[in-house]
Amino acid sequence: VQFVESGGGLVQPGGSLTLSCTASGFTFSRYDMSWHRQAPGKERELVAAITSLGGSTNYADSVKGRFTISRDNAKKTVYLQMNSLKPEDTAVYYCNARRVSLSFWGQGTQVTVSS
After folding, report:
1. Can you give the pLDDT at residue 83?
2. CB under 8 Å to 35, separation ≥6 — which residues?
């Protein structure tokens, strides 16, 4: 199982970023996918999730209306479009694949929101 995460970086408050996570080594279309984040000194938290065929999504209250999760099963990729970014969105963002008792994690990509 491998993930290639990209799209992180430094952005000013109010700016936008799109994270991508491309998977290999498992049947991507059978797995629910999600993005999580972990800020320094804090626990990892769920940001957004999408079901295997993309029919359902859910979001943390703190990002509702600003972030959008999507997936392209043909490209084995899950995305996180982040708009109106705030300093409190600063964290390492991880993608996760889950199916029943199986769970795989990406290596993480840093997002820093600062002026």
Report:
1. 98
2. 19, 21, 46, 47, 48, 49, 69, 78, 80, 93, 94, 95, 96
Q: How far apart (Å, rounded) are the C-alpha atoms in residues 104 and 67?
A: 22
Is residue 30 helix, strand or coil? helix
pLDDT value at residue 104: 96
CB of 31 closer than 8 Å to CB of 97:
yes
Cα–Cα distance, 99 to 86 (Å, whole number): 32
Tokens of 42: 């804090």
The model's confidence at residue 54, banded by pLDDT at 50, 70 and 90, is confident
Q: Rounded to whole angstroms, how far apart are CA atoms 91 and 113?
A: 9
Compute the distance between CA of residue 3 and CA of residue 95 in angstroms, rounded to an integer.
Answer: 8
User: 22 — alpha (psi -120 to 50), left (phi > 0) or beta?
Assistant: beta
Question: For residue 97, how many other CB atoms are within 10 A of its CB?
Answer: 25
